[in-house]
Design brief:
alpha/beta, Chitobiase, domain 2, 2 domains, two-stranded antiparallel ribbon, 36% helix, elongated, binds zinc ion
């Protein structure tokens, strides 16, 4: 019984402490809180980055939309010069943001690192690289405005718990992704905001309903299932400059053996030296054509991946089996061709 009494006393003390914390929080509002909206108005403006990129403009737009959904209030979007001495939420680096930050923080940041922080009554959301400012805005929407996503099959939609008055506590967070280049599931807007940053050709973005400004890190001409674009088994299946090629008739050995050891136009046989040479030649031709067309110096990403048929492995031939054994993985069949 004494043990029960001790436990009971301890629980009483814990409960009393918990209650005192709650009542203290209720009776003493934090003088440092930032009142983002109240009574149907806001005293804040959203400040665009200086020299905003299309991705920055997209980030500013989803921030303005998120604040509107959360508070019912329209937060004006202004350029740095128009911010004056108003309370501000700065996206990216601008003259107005540098007044709060002291200097441009990006030289000390890693690529894609972002930071979200309040500085006095102002807020700075910034990051480095193509998507840094966007990731800062996404963090603010999720962790400060408590945005949630409602799943609707492939297409998710954000929602907010609407508040008539929104006051937030001072905050400071920063983070950087562990992997530089990411292709997470399908290229929809949800995945884009959470880091999908490669393999987004314009027609794929349009097909998946990605809005204006959702650009990848690299230019890349095609999305997935690209190996037959470079080594088309039949005429008409490859890139336009290979449209007359049908390699399966002339070089069946370029294609993988299935489990019954028959060459089938389903995947490539990467152990074959002739296939490697032809594939490399065609990819280099493609890079040369892309470089001629390009008007900027953004890097090009060439995607080379398997075709859709679920064949288990690229190829069951003896040479590919030996590579699989050497690298302890069916991926060894392909990796050795390029490493
Ligand atoms: Zn093979």
């Amino acid at each position: 019984m004494p043990n029960v009494q001790i436990l009971s006393r301890a629980l009483t003390v814990v409960l009393a402490l918990a209650c005192s914390r709650v009542s203290a929080a209720r009776s003493e509002p934090d003088a440092m809180e930032l009142e983002l909206s109240g009574g149907g108005v806001t005293s804040y403006v959203i400040v665009k980055p200086d020299n905003a990129t299309p991705v920055d403009s997209y980030a500013v737009r989803i921030l303005a939309e998120g604040l509107k959904q959360k508070t019912g209030v329209t937060f004006p979007v202004v350029a740095s010069a128009g911010a004056g001495e108003q309370k501000r939420i700065c996206v990216g680096v601008s003259a107005a943001a540098e007044k709060d930050l002291g200097r441009d923080p990006r030289p000390a940041m890693r690529d894609q690192e972002f930071a979200v922080r309040s500085i006095g009554q102002n807020i700075c959301l910034y990051g480095k690289g193509v998507h840094g400012n966007l990731y800062a805005v996404v963090d603010f929407l999720d962790n400060t405005l408590e945005r949630r996503w409602c799943v609707d099959e492939y297409y998710e939609k954000p929602s907010f718990n609407r508040l008539e008055s929104l006051a937030i506590k001072p905050f400071a967070r920063s983070r950087a992704p562990s992997f530089a280049y990411r292709m997470l599931g399908f290229p929809n807007e949800f995945n884009y905001q959470y880091g999908y940053n490669i393999c987004l050709p314009p027609e794929v973005r349009a097909g998946w309903g990605l809005p204006e400004g959702t650009l990848p890190v690299f230019d890349n001409p095609v999305w997935v299932h690209t190996s037959f674009l470079y080594i088309p088994p039949d005429p008409g299946r490859g890139f336009p400059w290979l449209k007359d090629q049908g390699y399966f008739a002339t070089h069946p050995e370029f294609y993988g053996e299935n489990i019954n050891r028959q060459r089938m136009p389903e995947q490539l046989c990467y152990a074959n030296p002739g296939l490697r040479a032809e594939l490399t030649k065609n990819i280099l031709t493609h890079i040369g054509l892309l470089r001629k067309e390009k008007t900027d110096d953004r890097p090009i990403l060439i995607a080379l991946d398997q075709e859709d048929p679920a064949t288990g492995k690229f190829c069951y031939c003896d040479a590919c089996a030996a590579l699989e054994q050497r690298y302890h993985s069916p991926a060894g069949q392909r990796c050795e061709a390029f490493w």
